[in-house]
Design goal:
This protein is of the alpha+beta class. About 30% of the residues lie in helices and about 25% in strands. A hairpin with a 6-residue loop joins strand 3 and strand 4. The mean pLDDT is about 90.
Amino acid sequence: MNTIVGTYECKVDAKGRLLLPAPLKKQLATSLQNGFVLKRSVFQPCLELYPMEEWNLMMEKINKLNRFVKKNNDFIRRFTAGVKVVEIDVLGRLLVPKDLVVFASISKDVVFSSAVNIVEVWDKNLYEKSICGEDVDFSDLAEDVMGNINDSDNGIS
């Protein structure tokens, strides 16, 4: 698994193209040849950019679901809705299809935000609202999610 680090801003042009910031493009260099999958996020009004290797790992998990269980079928349909195979062109641009631009309400300013092994693509205003913390107490969330994990002997999670 390749860990991606950082938050980067850029602008979208009239054709829906995003110029990947150089530090992000450098981190994704090993994935450029294989391409990417761009999809709607499950939980947020943003897009998720999966390097193809990560997408294939996700598909291995999803392919283990029993398609004769209605909830599984419904999940697969919703999870893969709007999925597009995309590439970064020679100029370092990512073309976001119109339906995904509409889904994520991308208008002018865009944020690329690392999410461990994928990159979230946000309209800047929506991103700022999502991280401002007004609807969630982050300290409580951190304790709930990470509070019982301590895999090392140094006392640091």
